């Protein structure tokens, strides 16, 4: 039964990879100077596709070997009913993978330029090497989003403001008490480019919980916004993602991740991911850890 479940998961994962890859082909088969946010978000009439077409969103990767320096073996939220009473002997080595895609559900809004997107991202932390616990999925996170995006045509020299928008974001781990974690956000975003550099700024506001709170003070740990810096050249992609609570004192917390992908063949790339901070997953929202993973990626930010 376990093998059938694992096989089903793998088939589903690579099926989604194939769908997204069909869209990604158009991006990598052209010169990089003509690529970027225009194609990924269909910002111009030349790059606009039909609605309800699957396209890439966040990176899609598999890290078969990921070292976690301090696994969260007994998760504890600041909410008393969300404190786990059971200690689990997690291994420091696990597998992590992420799938992510989006589809445009409406276009030509507001002066014929704005688009409405539906996106979905799932991440999995899998204790595949932990035979003592029957190789469980330590954490699964689900993140559906509704995003409105509007193209911009502003520039200061070579620095270009490409797009702006807002969205509604839900993130949860789909678990019951005491390990249930979820929250809802109103997000804003701004996308910019400078030659081979791409910049994202994405602040958010959390919606107030009306029936209890799985993760009190989550924005004090995970942060109130994130910034992405992406550099692409000769097939290499370097990214720096930083989340912060915007407190510039001893109470400053957040999360920082650096990734590097190196081309192997066609779209297959070697992938390195190094991160430190709070909120690597929902169950770890108030848990600080360092992670180092190596694997492969088929889709990057750009």
UniProtKB/TrEMBL annotation:
Gene3D superfamilies named in the record: Phospholipase A1
Higher taxonomy: Bacteria, Pseudomonadati, Bacteroidota, Flavobacteriia, Flavobacteriales
UniProt-listed GO biological process terms: lipid catabolic process
Description of how the protein assembles with itself and partners: Homodimer; dimerization is reversible, and the dimeric form is the active one.
Enzyme class: hydrolase
Keywords in alphabetical order: Calcium, Cell outer membrane, Hydrolase, Lipid degradation, Lipid metabolism, Membrane, Metal-binding, Signal, Transmembrane, Transmembrane beta strand
Protein name, per record: Phosphatidylcholine 1-acylhydrolase
Main location group: membrane
Cofactors, names only: Ca(2+)
Family note: Belongs to the phospholipase A1 family.
InterPro entries: PLipase_A1, PLipase_A1_sf
GO molecular function terms listed in the Swiss-Prot or TrEMBL record: metal ion binding; phospholipase A1 activity; phospholipase A2 activity
Keyword Coiled coil appears in the UniProt entry: no
Cofactor binding note: Binds 1 Ca(2+) ion per monomer.
Catalytic residues as annotated in Swiss-Prot or TrEMBL: 170, 172
Enzyme Commission designation: 3.1.1.32, 3.1.1.4
Gene Ontology CC: cell outer membrane
Binding site for Ca(2+): 134, 175, 180, 214
Subcellular location(s) of the protein: Cell outer membrane
Signal peptide: 1-20
Membrane topology: Multi-pass membrane protein
Catalytic activity entry: a 1,2-diacyl-sn-glycero-3-phosphocholine + H2O = a 2-acyl-sn-glycero-3-phosphocholine + a fatty acid + H(+); a 1,2-diacyl-sn-glycero-3-phosphocholine + H2O = a 1-acyl-sn-glycero-3-phosphocholine + a fatty acid + H(+)
């Amino acid at each position: 039964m376990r093998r059938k479940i694992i096989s089903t998961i793998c088939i589903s994962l690579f099926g989604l990879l194939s769908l997204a890859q069909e869209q990604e082909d158009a991006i990598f088969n052209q010169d990089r100077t003509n690529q970027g946010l225009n194609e990924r978000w269909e910002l111009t009439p030349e790059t606009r596709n039909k609605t309800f077409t699957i396209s890439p969103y966040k990176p899609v990767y598999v890290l078969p070997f990921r070292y976690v320096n301090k696994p969260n073996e007994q998760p504890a939220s600041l909410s008393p009913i969300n404190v786990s009473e059971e200690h689990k002997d997690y291994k420091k080595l696990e597998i992590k993978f992420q799938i992510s895609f989006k589809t445009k559900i409406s276009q030509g809004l507001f002066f014929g330029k704005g688009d409405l997107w539906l996106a979905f991202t799932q991440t999995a932390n899998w204790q595949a090497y932990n035979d003592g616990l029957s190789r469980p999925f330590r954490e699964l996170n689900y993140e559906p989003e509704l995003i409105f995006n509007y193209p911009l045509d502003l520039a200061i020299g070579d620095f270009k403001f490409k797009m702006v928008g807002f969205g509604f974001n839900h993130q949860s781990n789909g678990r019951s008490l005491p390990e249930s974690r979820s929250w809802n956000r109103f997000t804003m975003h701004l996308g910019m480019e400078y030659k081979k550099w791409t910049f994202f700024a994405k602040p958010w506001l959390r919606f107030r919980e009306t029936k209890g709170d799985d993760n009190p003070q989550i924005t004090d740990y995970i942060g109130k916004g994130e910034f992405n810096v992406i550099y692409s050249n000769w097939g290499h992609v370097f990214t720096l993602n930083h989340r912060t609570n915007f407190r510039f004192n001893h109470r400053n917390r957040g999360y920082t991740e650096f990734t590097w992908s190196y081309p192997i063949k066609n779209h297959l790339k070697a992938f390195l991911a190094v991160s430190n901070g709070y909120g690597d997953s929902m169950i770890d929202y108030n848990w600080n850890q360092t992670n180092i993973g190596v694997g492969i990626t088929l889709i990057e930010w750009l």
